[in-house]
Amino acid sequence: MTPRARFAKYGRMATRTKLDLTGLKCPLPALKTRKALKGLKPGDVLEVLCTDPLSVIDIPNLIQETGDKIDIARHAEREIVFVIEKQMA
């Protein structure tokens, strides 16, 4: 979805926030992601950078609970990037 489409969908321009959680181990990436999501408005995007291999399980499970949208933008050997779009509360 383009930023313009998000603007029309939520009536405002969406923001994109980057959260660098490299070096943190379970459960900290999921906990810090949850905290960051609470400060976002619908349509905002949170890009989360992790190095903990368990985050590929923990963060999608968190997003299933919150009802937001998630995509794994990059999953390399030592780095995982999640792109999460905040949905309506």
Main features:
89 residues, alpha+beta, Translation Initiation Factor IF3, 4-stranded mixed beta sheet, 3 helices
Write up this protein.
The chain is an alpha+beta fold. The chain has one domain: Translation Initiation Factor IF3 (2-Layer Sandwich), CATH 3.30.110. The chain is built from three helices and four strands, in the order αβαβαββ. It has a four-stranded mixed sheet, covered by helices on one side. A hairpin with a 4-residue loop joins strand 3 (69-75) and strand 4 (80-85). Helix 2 (28-38) runs parallel beside helix 3 (55-66). The longest helix is centred in the C-terminal third of the chain and has 12 residues, at 55-66. The relative contact order is 0.21.
What separation lies between the terminal Cα atoms?
19 Å
Stated plainly, the CATH topology is called Translation Initiation Factor IF3
- Give the strand tally: 4
Helix coverage percent: 25-40%
- CATH superfamily name? TusA-like domain
Beta content = 25-35%
Q: What coarse outline follows from CA principal-axis ratios?
A: globular
* Count of helix runs: 3
Contiguous runs where pLDDT drops below 50 for at least 5 residues: none
Query: How many domains, as an integer?
Result: 1
The average pLDDT value, as a whole number, equals 89
Largest β sheet strand count, sense and barrel closure:
4 strands, mixed
User: How much is the radius of gyration in Å?
Assistant: 13 Å
SS content category: alpha+beta
CATH class call:
Alpha Beta
Which sequence of strands runs across the widest sheet? 1-2-4-3
